[in-house]
Each structure stands twice: as C-alpha cells, then as structure tokens.
Write a structure and sequence with these properties.
The complex is a heterodimer of chains A (about 240) and B (about 325).
Chain A lengths: L4 E3 L5 E4 L7 E7 L2 E11 L12 E7 L7 H14 L12 E10 L8 H18 L6 E13 L4 E7 L3 H7 L3 E12 L2 E12 L3 H33 L6
Parallel strand pairs in A: 1-8, 5-6
Antiparallel strand pairs in A: 2-3, 3-4, 4-6, 7-8, 7-9, 9-10
Helix pairs in contact in A: 1-2
Chain B lengths: L8 H12 L15 E5 L6 E6 L2 E12 L10 E7 L15 H15 L10 E3 L3 E13 L4 H15 L1 E2 L1 E5 L6 E5 L7 E2 L7 E9 H7 L5 H6 L14 E5 L3 H6 L2 E7 L5 E8 L5 H33 L4 H4 L7
The chains are: A alpha+beta (about 240), B alpha+beta (about 325).
Amino acid sequence: MTVLDITRPSPASAITSFLYRVDGSASWKVGTAHIIASVSGPIEVNKRDELPDVATLEIVVRPDVGVTSTREQFLQDRIRRAVAPVIALELHPRTLIQVVVQIVQSGDTKILNTISLSACINATYMALLDAGVPLRSTVSATSIVYYTAATSDASKTKVLVDPTRAQLEQIEKDISSAHTIAYELKGGKIERLLLSDSVGSFTEDQVFECYDTAANICEETNRTMREAVTKCVQQKSRWREA
Amino acid sequence: MPRDLTPSTIENTFVLKALTERIRLDSRSFNQLRDLDISFSSTDYGVVDVKLGRTRVIARISAEITQPYADRPYDGLFIISTEISPMAAPTFEAGRKSEDELVISRIIEKSIRRSGALDTEALCIISGEKCWAVRADVHFLDHDGGLMDAACIAVSAGLLHFRRPDITIVGVGSRREVIVHPITERVPVPLAVLHVPICVTFSFFDVRKASAAIAGLPGKDNMKEADDDDVEEENDSSTAVLVDATLQEELLRHGFMSVTANTNREICQIQKGGDMPVEVGKLLSCSEAAIMVAEKVTKLIKKRLKEDEARRNVGNLLVEARAENDR
C-alpha cells in the first residue's frame, strides 16, 4: 500500500440547544458546510404513520436553495440508515420523533453530496442527544475524498478529509472517489460501521484504508461532540453554582 | 402534528389585565421592538441571519441565468420562497401550507416583490433570451411571533448584501454570448435595490372588553396616567396597540395589522386581519409608527452592511477593482 497524503483543513465546531420551540437543536460546521438540525419528540403522531410497537422516525431535509428534490430524498434515506439503529425507538411506541435538517450552507459542489451528508448525520445526532431522545450509543460521521494530484514526476493519489468547497472546486476534475462513513462509538472508541456510502471508482485497498482513516477522524469528531455537550450542560446548570 | 397550545383563561386574563395597566409581560413599552440582531455570512453573499427576540430567520439570496417570460422580455425573475418547516415549531407540517403560512407568504410577497423593491428590469441581460432569476429562500428556524417582520427584514437585508457575478456580452445578432466572470476573477455586482421595505405588525387588544370581563378593575383610570411616549394612545383608550408581538401576544390578540413602510415615508402594503374594527385615526398613527420603526431598522441594516464591507474590503481592493460606474 502506498503512503498517502491526508489533509484535514479545519476541525468541526458544534453548538447545541439554541432553538426554543423544538426539544433539541444542534448546529454543525465543518469545512464550508453548515447544517442546523432540530428534533421534536416523542410527540403525537399522525394516525396513518402510527406504528404499534415503535416510535415513528420522520426525517425532513430542507435544501439551502430551491425546493426539495431527489437530492434531499437521498440525504433523508442515508441519514435514517446511519441514525435509526442507535435510537431506542421501542421505548416510545405510537409516537413521533421528528427530525428537521436544514442545510444552511451545503459545502458541496454540484456533483457531490458527501460533505453535506456527513455533516447532516453529525448535526442530527447532536440534536437527538440534545432533545433527550433515548439512544443506545453515539454516532459520528466523516467524509473522505480521493483525488489524483498531477505532480511533476507522476500522478499520485491524495486524500482530503472534510474538504472545503474551494478545495473541492480546485480538484473537481481529478476526484476519483468520495466516501461518507459513519461509525457507532461506545466510550469514545469505534464499535461498528453504520454507513458506508461511496461514489466514483476505487480499489478494495482504498476502501479499507478509508475505514481506518475514518475511524480516527470519527473518534476525534466524537471528542468535539463531547466538548460541545459539556459546554451546553455547563451553561444550563449555571444556576446550581453559587 | 400536535396542535399549538391554546393559552389558558388565566393566562389570557393575566396578559389582558397587565395590558390595561400598560404593562407587557417582557417589560417592553407598547411600541418597542424586541432586540434585533442582523448578521451576514462571512463567506457567501446574500446570506442573512436575523434574530428578533427569540424568533430566528435565515434568508439566502441566489441568482442564476434563465430565459425571461415570453410576455415580459425586458424583465428578470424574482421569486421569494417562504416555506415553514417543523423546525420553527412542531405545529407546522412539512410540505403542507397552513393558513397562517399562507398569510405570511402573501404579506412578504406584497411587501417586497410587488412593492418593486428589486428593479427586475435591471436583471435583463439579452431581451427575450437571457435574464437573471433572483431567488430568496427564507428559512424559519424559530417561531416566537413576528415571523413576517423578521422575514421581511431578512430578505431586504439579503437583497442589499447580495452580489451577482459580473457578465459581459460578446458577439452580435444571433451569435451573442454571455460570459459569466466568477467572483474570484471580477468584483461582483450588487442588485438594483430601489427601496428597503420593512414590515411592522401591530396587534390590537380590545382592552375595554377585557376590563369589563375582569371585574373591579379600574382599567380606564390607569390608562390616563400612562407614560406618554406611546404614539397611539391619545384619544381613545379602549384599544391597546402593540408593536412586534411575541407568540403569546399573537395568540391572544383580537386583531392585527401589518404595515410595510420604507424610509421614503411610503406605505408599501397594509394588511388587516382579525375580527376587531379599528378606527381611521389608529390606522394613521400605526402608519406613522411603522415609518419610525422602518427608519430605525434600515439604519441598523446599513450599519451592519458597512461593517461587513469593511471586513471584506481588505486593502480597498473591492473598490479599486470594480468595473461599475458611479451613479
């Protein structure tokens, strides 16, 4: 296996509990992507969506520009796959857990969804946590982009983690594959793979390498989340002091 | 979807009783706006985050090149999209328009688009062939009353902040082509904004009816001694007129009126709702108050725009490199 150049431009930042009318909210910024997610639940469910043994999970993704399209449907489906397995839906049967994901700035180019997908998953998870929805474990996601850099001697495969939009535009023609990977974590260590979504052409080696890289990044992301939650709890329990 | 909680009778009497004593629950005076915070995106043009108390709205302006309508070859397109998601409040259903939402989107449409705030003729590139389509997407994040006021401020500020890429037309006749210069190449161009409409919503409370309901309350006497910085109290004191109501006040009010005004002292739009009759005098004093609020808000928008430009205009490059002529 070749030694790879991995660059991560900026660490992620998160804020939780800033909306008043919903039960939980989170804002997730990474690269140029900015996502706001909100969670209400468990609340009353529409009769036709009611499930007898579990809570209904509704995920609505709203685009930054224009009306909802297939792209948002795609994102909704992938977020559900990543997040649904960790929610203890069976604890609140016949209710609704409603997630709204607002893309404020997608951070993607026109052909990719990778960056917004990983940011959406992270924001959704943070909002669920803030809403106090029962969860089994933690989730974090990351996006990895492979591209061939035309250096002076020979073309070499390079890796970008959570790139900014400007970086993506620069290498747009040389992108070979893009991956979104979500892990389940327990005690800050990765437990199992929840979602692996890839586009483009890549080798088997690259996928496994991708999983290893993502594992490290996800653990780091998990620490960022923990810090954000700690900060929020500190803020909320200020009244206890003094 | 869960229904919104109807305020209880106790809450209702409490708020109304406070109003007869000229007190609002958040200790504002009757014609005072909540804290207004306007901030622009540090990266993109035309992205505005407006906080009006606990109400929060983000507006994003975008533009692309399309073909104009066949019957209006000299006009560009301007669309405002105001869809309310359950993020604002769980009572809003995703993908379905409620009645409140319809009122809000119509008022915004009337305030900004039909008042001609944006010169659509300036968006024409080649008549009948190419024009700019400007789109304003309003995202309602948090709902604590005054959604239309916040949305109107956000869209107005967004239009002023937005820059579209510069273009040149090459060739003649049918072989004309449009070259779009990316904003990294040429200084982008602002939109032709003709005026800044600001929407102000007044909520009416029938205080006489309320004080009759609350037995033994000296409603009228109290009102006479009330502080005189309010414009709309003079002659008749049976109606309390509140500027920028919170959600609670919105749910309890007997009537409302939205007035859109600008700093040229022009009234762009008036919409009256609810089942409470209001005298002509009130209407005039409300218009006057709306103009005052519009002046205040426009001043704040201009101030924030200046701050944002100072931050972007490093080394005065944005001024020196622009291709526009001074008008």
